[in-house]
Amino acid sequence: MQLIQLQYFCTVARCRNMSRAAEELWISQPALSKAISNLEEELGIRLFDRIGRGIRLNDAGRLFYHQISHIMLLLDDAVRQAQRVKSAQHHDVSVLFTAATFVAPRIREEFERESPEISLEIKCCYTPDPQDLRDCDFHIYATPMESPGMVPVKMLEEPMLLTCNSKHDLAGRGEVDLIETREYMYQCLPPHENMHENFASSCKKAGFEPKIAFCTEDSYAFFSGLGSSNLLTMVPAYTAFSSLCNNLVLLKIRNPKCTRTVYMASHQGRELSENCLTFQSFCFNFFKRLASGYTKEN
What CATH number belongs to 93-154+264-291? Predict the structure, then answer.
């Protein structure tokens, strides 16, 4: 049994069509059919049911694919790690942020000042694809999101606060019950963004559907709009505070309890390099400073 046979098998299983699989693999359809037939002959069992022009896994094929696809992912991961050792001059630590993105530039600046010999690569996005997750050494995310296949370590738990313009009706309150805001208009980030998920969940716990007047994927527009509008916004206390405008008021939420937990996850079974361990230690200290209200000045 050859590795290339298993690669061909996985491609056919995924495409469910011999012609499409052959095009993707850049080989002729007869050659691909022959390779699959040889594999089935070697195993002594058929893996596919042929239905008209299509092809699909049978029970034995599904079981075989489940195991083999996992092995192929592990092989692919091993190749990536070996290639990253070779290309270490490009970046030593790769970090994916899907939450706390507003502190990512500060993390990069402070870490490179403390460890200039280590190259740091950061990517920020709302919805990472599987390739993003496979390529990164660390994934920094926040509840309610999860990161399957990775081992999370809690960095901090932060309260969610309401912000409003200093001229807003609620600006002098200091703290409010969230239900009191049900008649006011909100601005927010899009539904697939973590802060939106926390916002929607909190309003649901309070028993109302928020009125959304402004929703944007543009972080700059989001924070610029805070100071120039009469809208309420829910933001995390520590990881967004440095991005807030000067003419904003922060309101504590008495009820319900509104918090989110920020995690830093690494791949299960993947050994961390010394450079990664250095960065991990730096992040523990960085988020600890945030939680204590410490702001590092340049």
Answer: 3.40.190.10
Q: Locate the domains of the chain by residue range.
A: 3-85, 93-154+264-291, 155-260
Report the candidate in 137, 136, 109, 142 with the shortest Cα–Cα distance to residue 258: 142
Rounded Cα–Cα distance for residues 217 and 189 (Å): 6
Which residue, chain included where needed, has tokens 């509840």?
Answer: 143
CATH for 155-260, options being 3.30.450.40, 3.40.718.10, 3.40.190.290, 3.30.450.20: 3.40.190.290
Q: What is the residue-wise DSSP string for the chain?
A: --HHHHHHHHHHHHHS-HHHHHHHHTS-HHHHHHHHHHHHHHHTS--EEEETTEEEE-HHHHHHHHHHHHHHHHHHHHHHHHHHHHTTTT-SEEEEESS-GGGHHHHHHHHHHH-TTS-EEEEE-SS--HHHHHH-SEEEEETT---TTEEEEEEEEEEEEEEEETTSTTTT-SEEEGGGGTTSEEEE--TTSHHHHHHHHHHHHHT---EEEEE-S-HHHHHHHHHHSS-BEEEETTTSGGGS-TTEEEEEEEES--EEEEEEEEETTPPPPHHHHHHHHHHHHHHHHHHTT-----
Cα-based angle 93, 112, 282 (whole degrees, multiple of 5): 70
pTM of the model: 0.66
- CA-based nearest residue to 198, from 165, 227, 240, 226: 240
Over residues 176-185, the pLDDT tens digits come to 999 999 999 9
Q: At what angle do helices 59-86 and 3-15 cross, to 10 degrees?
A: 120
Q: Which two tokens stand for residue 79?
A: 């190749």
Residue-wise pLDDT for 80-121, tens only, equals 666 665 554 445 899 999 999 889 999 999 999 999 999 999
